[in-house]
Amino acid sequence: MTPPRRALSALGTKTAGDVLAARGITLTTHPSGSALDTLVRLIQETVASVDEVQHQLLTQAETASRTLDRITSGRDTVHHAATDGLLQFTGISIDMLVARRGEGIRLLRMLANSYADLWTSPERDSPHQIPAPAQAPPRAPRRSRT
Questions:
Q1: How far is Cα 129 from Cα 8, in angstroms, rounded to an integer?
Q2: pTM of the predicted model as reported, rounded to 2 decimal places
Q3: C-alpha separations of 3 from 6, 55, 65, 71, 135 in Å
Q4: What distance in Å separates the CA atoms of residue 41 and residue 32, rounded to the nearest whole number?
């Protein structure tokens, strides 16, 4: 049996860093309440969530791996009469965590790319300036019908 590859426990942190580095930027502080500030907070929350899900996933996978290793090495003889399943809820839990991690990574990439787009946009330098609405051309004065 080949030794398991060391998994990345801070996958959210790495993913956000990679997406932003590919765009040549890093997260910085922005004025409170600005769109960039909101995106930074959303990215940080999503990073923490993905990292937590990844930690739970690694824990569950290591448990399953140890259980399956006992089977492949013939040390599972205690469970020969058991019918409740060796992995029990672990397999379902791993499936659910993988799905949550995938959704979290997709959201994180979307948020990081949105941050990069907004950070590098030309309008960023004047976020509080709202363009004036286009005005209709002036009308000729009305003539009275008298």
A1: 43
A2: 0.73
A3: 9, 20, 11, 16, 70
A4: 10
Taking residue 112's Cβ as centre, other Cβ atoms within 10 Å add up to 26
Q: Which residue has the tokens 């994180």?
A: 108
Helix, strand, or coil here: 4?
coil
Q: Give me the DSSP letters along 84-104.
A: S-SSTTHHHHHHHHHHHHHHH
Q: How many CB atoms lie within 10 A of CB 84?
A: 6
Question: How far apart (Å, rounded) are the C-alpha atoms in residues 146 and 141?
Answer: 15
pLDDT of residue 37: 96
Written as six digits, the tokens of 48 are: 């923490």
Query: Going residue by residue through the chain (146 aa), what tens digit of pLDDT does each one get?
Result: 444 456 688 999 999 999 999 999 999 999 999 999 999 999 999 999 999 999 999 999 998 998 888 878 877 666 556 556 667 788 899 999 999 999 999 999 999 999 999 999 887 655 444 444 556 566 666 666 65
Tokens 């791993």 identify what position?
94
Residues whose CB is less than 8 angstroms from the CB of residue 52 and which lie 6 or more positions away in sequence, other chains included: none
